[in-house]
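Bug #2210: token dump truncated for DUF541 domain-containing protein?
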Amino acid sequence: MVDAPVVTVRGEAYREVPPELARFTVTATARDRDREATLTRLAERAAAVRVLLDAEGPAIDRRETGDLRVRPETARSSERVVAWHGSVTTTVAVTDFTALGELMLRLADQDQVEVAGPWWSLRPDSPVHREVRHAAIADALARAREYAEALGARVTALVELADAGVERPMMARMAYAAGPGAGDGPPELDLDPQQQTVQAAVQARFAISTPVLG
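Reproduced locally. Full output below:
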């Protein structure tokens, strides 16, 4: 018995969609010759950051505090401590982009606070990923049918389907813009959410009917 002929194709899909999350980090720092004074200042600055974040309510999707560091600064060629450095970083994920720039500026306006970001992304469970995978499978089936029709045949069955990889490059783009009356009021920060590229690819093998050649 002759095995049914098989056509092997690659299906691909590509989408550009708006981001769903923006992440940024807030780092409060302190330095003093006295260790206790350093820790006290660090705690006060971290608490001020927390108060500002608490005021945002549901606009903040998630926040995590980590990377607490306290280290001594020593004199050259000596273990004598001349100062203490402390820092604590909070990672914030925001879903409301309309207030993002204002929030980042308010945080950056705090004493000895550094703000970095934003980094744009989709949620891990975003339905966009599923939609793109389905589109890649549909593309593979369409290609297989085109090849089969060119041979005077038709697709009869799926033999094998494999994920050929998914790429989701995430980039950040930030722009600063001074609003009307710049210098007379608080600065304004306009952020341009970076479109997210979502790609999916599959390898598929389809059985086809006997081609009509000649």
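Output looks complete on our side. The helical segments are 35-54, 100-108, 127-150. Marking as cannot-reproduce; reopen if the truncation happens again.
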